[in-house]
Write a structure and sequence with these properties.
The protein is about 50% helix and about 10% strand.
Length: about 675
Amino acid sequence: MTVTIAREGSIAVVTVDNPPVNALSQALRQALVEAVAELDADGAVKAVVLICAGRTFIAGADVGEFGKPPQPPHLPDVVARIEGASKPWVAAIHGSALGGGLEVALGCAYRVAVASASLGLPEVRLGIIPGAGGTVRLPRLIGPAAAVDLVTGGSPVGAKKAEGLELVDAVIDGDLRAGAIAFAGDVAAKPLPQPISARAVPAVEDSFWESAEKAVAAKAKREAAPLRALASIRNASRTDFAAGMAFERETFLELRGSAQAAALRHVFFAERAAPRPPELSGVTPRAIRSAAVIGGGTMGAGIAAALRDAGLPVVLVERDGAAVERGMANIRAIYDGAVKRGRLVQAVSDERMAGVAGGDDYGLLADTDLVIEAVFEDLAVKRAVFERLSGICRPDAVLATNTSYLDPAAISEGIGHPERFLGLHFFSPAHVMKLLEIVPTGTTAPDVLATGFALARLLGKIPVRAGICDGFIGNRILKVTRAQAERLLLSGAAPSTVDAAMRAFGLPMGPFEAQDLGGLDIAAFQRRAARERGETPFAPVADRLCAAGRLGQKTGGGWYDYMPGERTPTPSEAVAAIIAEEAAGRPQRAWDEAAIADAIVLPMVNEAARILEERVALRAADVDLVKIHGYGFPRWRGGPMHYAEARGLCEVVAVLDRLCADGLAEPPCAGLRRAVEAGGFSLLAG
Ligand code: 3HC
Ligand code: NAI
């Protein structure tokens, strides 16, 4: 970490260089305080530019320090010191000014930024609120309404929008350093502006706070931080600056030590580690400049859109002319939807579509760098596709399958250059869902595997390496979720009770609602295949619903009944009768929400421990990312493995033992028992 001070005439330029993102470590905080003192004492300096080296302005407090006791100088004092400087400080922003970084900028007399910069207070995403004046200075600068949006939503805004909000004083074209020095030269001659802390918060109606509270609560669901952030802004609007700061700091410190913040920090670091697994360090991925998708159905169209969104030219190959038309229409529907929802302007949508070439001629793929297959889930059909690709594509082109349940090794059998083959398992809708399971076969070359991770980065996805087994990581655990949900039905819980309990746990949807939405047929198909392999999947009620043609919303009924054209689930008497028949002779009991969540989530953890033991997943945090980004597991719980560790693995095993004794779950696996002894999952990792 270095903070250097250069002089350009009467302007001092303070450059922060604390790679990778100039986070506000204790040493940096100390150095900033010292810089203020030095420059205050230097009579030749009339104004100061605060600028950062590297890819970004200060990206926030050092999240790595959050688990430890705060060390002085504390950030609020650093910001106060800058605000109290005897000459104007000008924050010169490129990259991101986030969290504590923006709070430092708010301590400066002025803020200038390049057009590509973004500014924000993402603290609520880490389960905390801004801790260095963000909720107190921001409403004084941009008004409570804009401050509430910025702080409780956590999303950054671009420099142009920030200028409109008067959060930024000028957007600099061209060289930031030179532009900021010129700006500082201009303001040096003027009197210092009133510090933000001395300004009043513009008044708003009382009704503003009530409606803001409703809106924030509805969005935050069970996350604590957004409402606490709102409370801090509201408090700052009716008290003086010092009282506002005291309230904010108290809330910040309390939340910093909370279980939700620990979980969200765990996810933060897991997400950042995911694209760069240590086992691939030093391996150079193959270049991907063009891509193709085979099959333009639900998944193929979504994958094509994801590739286009990342700027790659895409070829879509289908079976025949009519199927090409349908596939292209599927992609167009994605972009039309984006325009309708205001996410894309028409011109961009047109440009994305113009970059997709459709056809039924595999010859189009002769020079493509990456081909992703998304045809029917049928081994023979997939093999035939790869046989053709193998003869047509360049020998170094990467070939990938999007299969959900088939064995990628079997799919690639017999192809030329099998080292270039791997599984890339996207989730539906593929242009939206963040998870990408990357599945190497025994022959996949390291640089091809690394290409999968590089592709994920390019597409803005979270990559997780998964070994080959039925369902890889995510769908294998999903099978346990569903089996457990059915076990609950047979022991006294109704589908609506189970769904409500899982929503209360934090999932966006319960397991039965989710099956009705996606359709029960895919899992039925997959159970049939499992039975053919001699396995005995547990789904007595689902099997009967499928036999009765109750496949979910699309057939007007599944686990629930649906009025024609409606999506609201209504408890079904027919389903209740089937459950009663299947439950006959089994012990019945009363289930509360917590017991239901335990009976579903803890067996998932048990399966995940098995997955780790088998090295299907390499890290417990990878399982967390899979469940959060592919299956809606609440982020603020940190994923199932973090949840289990935070809860205490001893207790997890004890609950599983009890469920097992009642015939309601598998016994804890050896890996889970070993993890108890080791005090965590890390021994199963790596
Ligand atoms: N503290 C510590 N490390 C951080 C960090 C932070 N605030 N932000 C990023 N990092 C680390 C990452 O873990 C990663 O480390 P690694 O190379 O060892 O894996 C490295 O910096 C690079 O991060 P990214 O891969 O995310 O880099 P990108 O260039 O893709 O993105 C970024 C840069 C937009 C700045 C992104 O890192 C980001 O959004 N960071 C989080 C910013 C944030 O949440 N700030 C608020 C912190 S809370 C706070 O400030 C409280 C205050 O109010 C008191
Ligand atoms: P789909 O039935 O919607 O689309 C399949 C498409 O492949 C059809 O458009 C069909 O015309 C085309 N096709 C079939 N044979 C072809 C061939 N020989 N050459 C070119 N095109 C051909 O199926 P969906 O849902 O898109 O699934 C595709 C694959 O993705 C399957 O392997 C599935 O298991 C997997 N998958 C599906 C998910 C989902 O939620 N639907 C999620 C993740 C993976």
